[in-house]
Write a structure and sequence with these properties.
Blueprint (H helix, E strand, L loop, with lengths): L5 H13 L1 E5 L6 E6 L2 E6 L7 E5 L6 E8 L2 E9 L2 E4 L4 E4 L10 E6 L6 E6 L2 E6 L7 E6 L3 E5 L10 E6 L3 E5 L8 E5 L2 E8 L7 E7 L1 E8 L5 E7 L4 E4 L4 E2 L4 E3 L10 E7 L3 E6 L1
Parallel strand pairs: 2-6, 2-10, 3-9, 3-11, 10-12, 11-13, 12-14, 13-15, 14-16, 15-17, 16-18, 17-19, 18-24, 19-25, 20-24, 21-25
Antiparallel strand pairs: 1-4, 4-9, 5-6, 7-8, 20-23, 22-23
Amino acid sequence: MKLSKIPFLLIILPLFLIGGEKHLSLKNVNKVIINAGTGYFQFTTNKHKHPIKMEYTFPEKNVSYVYNYEDDHKTDLEISFGKLKVRSDNDDININISKSGPLSDSAYVNLYPNKPIDFKLNIGASRCNIDIGDINLRSMDINNGASNIDINFKKARKLSLEYLNISSGASKIKANYLLNCGADSINISGGVNKLFLDFTGNLKKNMYVQIISGVGLTNIGIDKNTPCMMVISKGFLASNDISEYFEKVDDSTYISPSYRCNKKHLNIHIENNLGTIDVFER
């Protein structure tokens, strides 16, 4: 190899390995939908100079953008990665991964829009890491199939959602510092799955949580200083293991020691159909 070609390769090779990069600054967007097919995906809302930044190692033809128009303004942005069929009002798009290397099925997305948005994430058979920073999202809706998802609200100091919805199939979901999301309501439903739900952080207002557990294990950790009431129903073959830290009021209701002396409450309703619920204090 000629020495003159070495500097050229040093420039081109990192670009080949890293893949594409996009910066979008859409002032009128109020809803972002991300469809993640097969691969590894990392999403963060930590502040970045570009409102929406994407770095990916998919071939560019496997990354699609769909805009929905309303009054001639772009209000919804839809981004799709991987092997997935996307349907919109205008078109049907089929996207297929063509692996060309060990990094060809990964994507990194940074969302920090100029104003509050609704965020919807549709995940296929993927691994997904979601790090929610200090951003004022209006709502979050996460739908997943056979996925492994890690959601972290540790840095979400100012976040105050209207709602957080998480629905899963055969999945493993870990959600940390859920109190920091500041949601009025949280709805979590699972099929055949493992759920690890960490209710720690700052309880800013009354929060209502509904958990519907299918077949599998649901671990629920609750900050022992949080005023909390749990109402739990279970099917014939289901089982519940509730820490003695929580006072049993009746056959289905439990409260924390601080529940009666506080005005802000965490209210959790659990429907355990055919799984195991393990509730402990943190």
